[in-house]
């Protein structure tokens, strides 16, 4: 049987492991990898068969061929050409590329077709010193056949005519960064570049005809990133090793429109324009957990409007995030996560990028593939859709419960079989709050006892155990426990009982529990006896009842005293009414004493069918107008029958009214009492116009003895009474409160009055 359980456990674990990658709608896997160069994918149209791939090798080591091309994505029948040059960068066009290289300390731009044939070249008028390095890269397409190129701090515009001839014009020097204004949704012949130094830059809007507008002067940091936002430009800047970035929006005619700080370094921020609004997404870690937050620029300072996405665990050393239009890609050293526009995780895959790339790769999308590029390594990831991902996710989440559950069963099995519950029983014996603990075998011998148990029996550690329990019960106060043990051994079942023990001429109440011990086969092995002295708790309960009595009598005594004082001072026709009020309040006091005695004796209720409106009226009448002249009582009651314990419901309403009066803090106010039924329940409501409560106070209100009105006679007992009465009726106590507007207490109890039928009807 043990072997069968282990086989089933192993099968479940293996099944869950095999489907772990399918628990999201998509997953990515390696489709093709290329070492030694940068991959560029081009196509002449949307057909897959017209894709041309180029592999650009830097040429640092003097390779014989530095550019390779082939049809399709997989490297088959690759053709190589061009040697003796060092490639600095290349830009993809339709089935061709623009390359910039160094040949004999001169810089050239070359147009190369799909057969790696050089169609034309043009030398760049850039004096390159013998020891000077050239940091050259393509900015992008400005308009048809116009391309922007940056070499160190110089910006150039390359034009290609119909005969493939290249013309290169210098645009500006001292350029920090640049961007073209071309995207899928926006086309413009303009481009933007930043010029300046020492932390200050001029933002220039320039078109290919030579017109230039200086839009703004901004302050920047070490790292700069430009983002196209239709006809505007977004600028991200961040200092090295800084955890925050500055985001600014620049308009050609209006200058700086907005500036915001983002709590994330530049490489972990992605910005894209969705429905005319710049949407900012940034990666942030809290401990070892990573989150992606998304918001628009307007709400960047309002954390409540941030959309949070918690990323799966296990990912380390983030490279950064990229917004590819329809998804956000978060790249880590050991994997990749993609997220859709709604903030839902599309995929989560562990891929060892840190072992493939020596530097952080750039992520692009091409024909549904993800392309990761550095100057020396390229990787293509293939996307796979999982139609049943939600089913595998259910299996994975269920496995987190099933596997620990089965493991727990096996652990308990081996504990019972090998240690015979000794560790568990030792833990029970060592608990400081467990009271008296005895472990007795099936023959009635005392096997173990904790320190409290030994003190109770009057024995020390030197007295040997494993003798009949009766042997240790010499003292008079131990006889009741001995009788309980004998009865439990005979019954071989659980027993819960209160017993009275007289020790040192003092009577004490003990709460005793006997639990049988069984072997793995189910055979009776003995019992565990625990006993706790509850005398102190009972005394607290009695004191609580007395405090309750004083609490209930407080209002009536105040009314009696007020009327008695007036009887003594004033002699007129009103004295008769005051005598009646005094007699009425004395009657209420007698009834309250009877109520609290009844409640103290039992937790049972005596249901009777009564009028709900009468309950509200009787609770209201107990509050004399002369005692509460500033309180307006508003009754909104309906006549219907309710099955309840009338005295207890009146006491609950009375306490709610008293709480409402206290919330007025001695100021004029209103107490509204209401009742209404529905198909199953009866509702009683007490609404005040007092100070109200916030959420924290509402949560604490049902805590025993909690009160916010100690200065006005509050003790917290009234709320305990309300809660106790509702629980006895099987109902619910609801609290609605708003600071400054007041509080409403609603008693909701099941109403069985409409179900009562006579014997004749039955």
Please give the alpha-carbon distance between the first and last residues: 57 Å
Strands ordered across the widest β-sheet:
34-33-37-36-35
- The CATH fourth-level homologous superfamily of the domain at 537-755: Histidine kinase-like ATPase, C-terminal domain
Instruction: Report the biggest beta sheet as strand number plus sense, adding barrel if it closes.
Output: 5 strands, antiparallel
Low confidence ranges: 1-20, 757-762
Q: What general outline do the C-alpha atoms trace?
A: elongated
Name given to the CATH architecture of the domain at 537-755: 2-Layer Sandwich
| CATH T-level topology of the domain at 537-755 | Heat Shock Protein 90
- The share of residues in helices is 25-40%
Radius of gyration, CA atoms, in whole angstroms: 42 Å
- Helices and strands: which structural class? alpha+beta
Chain-averaged pLDDT: 82
Q: How many distinct beta strands?
A: 44
What percentage of amino acids are in beta strands? 35-45%
The CATH class of the domain at 537-755 is identified as Alpha Beta
Query: What is the count of helical runs?
Result: 13
């Amino acid at each position: 049987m043990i072997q069968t359980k282990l086989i089933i456990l192993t099968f479940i674990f293996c099944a869950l492991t095999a489907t772990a990658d399918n628990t999201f709608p998509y997953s990515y896997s390696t489709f093709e990898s290329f070492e030694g160069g940068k991959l560029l994918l081009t196509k002449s149209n949307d057909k897959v068969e017209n894709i041309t791939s180029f592999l650009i090798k830097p040429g640092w080591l003097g390779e014989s061929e530095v550019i390779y091309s082939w049809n399709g994505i997989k490297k088959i029948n690759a053709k190589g050409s061009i040697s003796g040059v060092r490639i600095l960068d290349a830009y993809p066009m339709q089935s061709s590329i623009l390359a910039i290289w160094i040949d004999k300390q001169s810089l050239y731009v070359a147009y190369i077709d799909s057969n790696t044939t050089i169609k034309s070249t043009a030398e760049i008028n850039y004096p390159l010193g013998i020891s000077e390095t050239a940091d050259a890269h393509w900015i992008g397409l400005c308009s048809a056949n116009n391309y922007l190129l940056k070499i160190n701090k110089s910006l150039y515009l390359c034009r290609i005519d119909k005969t493939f001839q290249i013309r290169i014009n210098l645009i500006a020097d001292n350029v920090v960064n640049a961007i073209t204004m071309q995207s899928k949704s926006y086309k413009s012949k303009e481009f933007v570049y930043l010029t300046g130094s020492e932390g200050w830059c001029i933002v220039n809007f320039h078109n290919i005809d030579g017109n230039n507008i200086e839009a703004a002067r901004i302050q920047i940091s070490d790292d700069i990133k430009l983002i196209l936002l239709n006809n505007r430009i977004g600028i991200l800047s961040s200092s090295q090793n800084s955890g925050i970035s500055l985001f600014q929006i620049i308009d050609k005619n209006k200058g700086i429109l907005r500036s915001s700080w983002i709590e994330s370094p530049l490489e972990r921020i992605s910005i894209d324009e969705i429905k005319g609004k710049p949407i900012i997404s940034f990666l942030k870690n809290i401990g070892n957990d990573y989150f992606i937050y998304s918001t628009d620029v307007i709400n960047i300072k309002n954390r409540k409007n941030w959309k949070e996405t918690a990323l799966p665990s296990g990912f380390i050393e983030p490279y950064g995030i990229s917004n590819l239009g329809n998804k956000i890609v978060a790249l880590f050293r050991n994997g990749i996560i993609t997220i859709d526009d709604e903030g839902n995780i599309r995929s989560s895959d562990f891929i060892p990028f840190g072992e493939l790339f020596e530097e952080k790769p750039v992520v692009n999308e091409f024909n549904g593939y993800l392309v990761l590029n550095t100057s020396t390594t390229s990787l293509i990831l293939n996307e796979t859709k999982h139609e049943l991902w939600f089913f595998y996710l259910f299996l994975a989440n269920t496995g987190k419960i099933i596997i620990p559950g089965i493991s727990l069963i096996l652990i308990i099995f081996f504990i019972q079989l090998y240690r015979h519950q000794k560790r568990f029983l030792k833990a029970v014996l060592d608990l400081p709050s467990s009271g008296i603990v005895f472990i007795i075998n099936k023959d009635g011998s005392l096997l173990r006892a904790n320190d409290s148990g030994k003190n109770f029996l009057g024995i020390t550690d030197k007295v040997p155990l494993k003798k009949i329990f009766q042997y240790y019960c010499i003292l008079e106060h131990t006889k009741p426990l001995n009788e309980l043990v004998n009865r439990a051994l005979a019954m071989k079942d659980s027993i819960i009982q209160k017993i009275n023990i007289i020790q040192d001429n003092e009577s004490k109440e003990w709460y005793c529990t006997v639990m049988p011990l069984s072997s793995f086969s189910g055979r009776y092995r003995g019992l565990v006896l625990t006993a706790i002295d509850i005398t102190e708790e009972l005394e607290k309960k009695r004191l609580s009842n007395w405090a309750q009595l004083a609490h209930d009598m407080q209002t009536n005594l105040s009314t009696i005293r007020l009327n008695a004082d007036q009887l003594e001072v004033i002699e007129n026709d009103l004295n008769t009414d005051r005598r009646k009020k005094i007699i009425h309040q004395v009657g209420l006091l007698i009834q309250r004493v009877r109520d609290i005695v009844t409640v103290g004796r039992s937790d049972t209720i005596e249901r009777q069918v009564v009028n709900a409106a009468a309950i509200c009226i009787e609770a209201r009448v107990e509050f004399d107008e002369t005692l509460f002249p500033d309180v307006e009582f508003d009754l909104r009651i309906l006549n219907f029958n309710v099955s309840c314990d009338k005295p207890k419901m009146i006491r609950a309403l009375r306490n709610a009214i008293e709480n409402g009066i206290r919330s007025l803090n001695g100021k004029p106010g209103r107490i509204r009492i209401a009742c209404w039924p529905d198909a199953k329940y009866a509702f009683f409501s007490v609404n005040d116009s007092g100070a109200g409560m916030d959420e924290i106070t509402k949560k604490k209100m049902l805590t025993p003895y909690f009160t916010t009105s100690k200065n006005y006679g509050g003790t917290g007992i009234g709320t305990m009474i309300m809660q106790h009465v509702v629980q006895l009726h099987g109902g619910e106590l609801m609290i609605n409160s708003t600071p400054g507007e007041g509080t409403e207490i609603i008693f909701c109890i099941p109403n069985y009055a409409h179900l009562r039928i006579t014997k004749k009807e039955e």
